[in-house]
Amino acid sequence: GENVEQHPSTLSVQEGDSAVIKCTYSDSASNYFPWYKQELGKRPQLIIDIRSNVGEKKDQRIAVTLNKTAKHFSLHITETQPEDSAVYFCAARGYGGSQGNLIFGKGTKLSVKP
Amino acid sequence: GAVVSQHPSRVICKSGTSVKIECRSLDFQATTMFWYRQFPKKSLMLMATSNEGSKATYEQGVEKDKFLINHASLTLSTLTVTSAHPEDSSFYICSADRDYYNEQFFGPGTRLTVL
């Protein structure tokens, strides 16, 4: 089955700097890769996702890149702000037909210092 | 769009009682919903996959007789924790797959405390 590894487990950056979180997956059949942001005591919020037919996707200050050959994908946050502080989870799953469940990474706690 | 509600948000009960948690997709149909358990500072642990009109699929190690799941309609799944014990205290979160979009949206979670 699928296995998702996420690094780093904690990340501290200065406001305005960039933050990068990396994930690797094991199942080459996976082709949907969402990222979730979870603030303390709240639900995970889908912030961006990427499907295997593209290598990069951007939405304002956040972007995700995917390397299917190497089986890794990354979240990039530019111009970080204190409100970006949260735990971020990557995930992977198959697409279409038998969709299957999301397999989550262990999470990265991002702290943005003012 | 793509809103998932979950009730109750918080429940405190005595050991031995049963607790029902509801998960609803408010503005979309969800043939498949998922139930997770989350421990403090940990990732989401999938408990079971709930399929509308059929039996739930439980992950290894999850007792199906203890965690009863019913997915009676395309917008509602329920999780009943039967004969709850203090070790069942946790944060339970549901999610719903938006049909045709392959996107998964989470409910706000239920904090269960068993005394």
Can you walk through the features of this model?
The complex is a heterodimer of chains A (114) and B (115). By secondary structure, chain A is mainly β. Helices cover 0% and strands 54% of the residues of chain A. Chain A contains no helices and 11 strands. In chain A, strands 2, 4, 5, 9, 10 and 11 form a 6-stranded mixed beta sheet that branches. In chain A, strands 1-3-8-7-6 form a 5-stranded antiparallel beta sheet, with no helix packed on it. Chain A is globular and about 40 Å long. Chain B is mostly beta strands. In chain B, strand 7 (67-73) and strand 8 (76-81) form a beta hairpin. Chain B is globular. The mean pLDDT of chain B is 92. The A-B interface holds A 32, 34, 36, 41-46, 49, 89, 93, 95-96, 99, 101-102, 104-107, 109 and B 4, 32, 34, 41-44, 46, 49, 93, 95, 97, 102-109.
Mass-distribution shape of chain B: globular
Rounded average pLDDT of chain B: 92
Radius of gyration of chain A: 14 Å
| H-E order of chain A | EEEEEEEEEEE
Compact description:
The complex is a heterodimer of chains A (114) and B (115). With 114 residues, chain A is an all-beta fold.
Core attributes:
heterodimer; A: 114 residues; mainly beta; six-stranded mixed sheet; five-stranded antiparallel sheet; 11 strands; B: 115 residues; seven-stranded mixed sheet; four-stranded antiparallel sheet; 0% helix; globular
